[in-house]
Amino acid sequence: MSNLVIKVAELPKDFPAIEAIRKSVFQEEQGVDPALEFDGKDVISDHLIAYLNVEAVGTARIRYLDEKTAKIERLAVFCRRRRNI
């Protein structure tokens, strides 16, 4: 049985895993320009990271637009793990 855990990322410690997931999904799979993907807004956002059996497999960032509005962005899951989550 799979053990899925989603937690608030600890930055900068978790950022290499987040970066690897986003590069794989957005740049390699979808051809997104790195300058668009890494837009400088990561430092003002909260990040989530998903672990499947202790392997980092997914991520999302939450960017707060104002006191009442948040935007979920950069939601990504490794291709090989999309059916398992």
Describe the structure.
The protein is α+β, with helices and mostly antiparallel strands and 85 residues long. It is 22% helix and 36% strand. It has 2 helices and 4 strands; from the N terminus they run βααβββ. It has helices at residues 15-29, 34-37, and strands at residues 4-8, 45-52, 55-64, 70-77. The chain has a 4-stranded antiparallel beta sheet with strand order 1-2-3-4, with helices on one face. The protein is globular and about 35 Å long.
Q: Would you list the SSEs in sequence order as H and E?
A: EHHEEE
β content, as a range?
A: 35-45%
Distance between the termini: 11 Å
Radius of gyration: 13 Å
Number of discrete helical segments: 2
Mean pLDDT score, rounded?
94
- As residue ranges, the low-confidence spans are none
Question: Can you summarize the main beta sheet?
Answer: 4 strands, antiparallel
- What is the helical fraction, as a range of percent? 10-25%
Tell me how many strands there are: 4
What gross morphology would you assign?
A: globular
Question: Structural class, from helix and strand content?
Answer: alpha+beta
Lateral arrangement of strands in the main beta sheet: 1-2-3-4
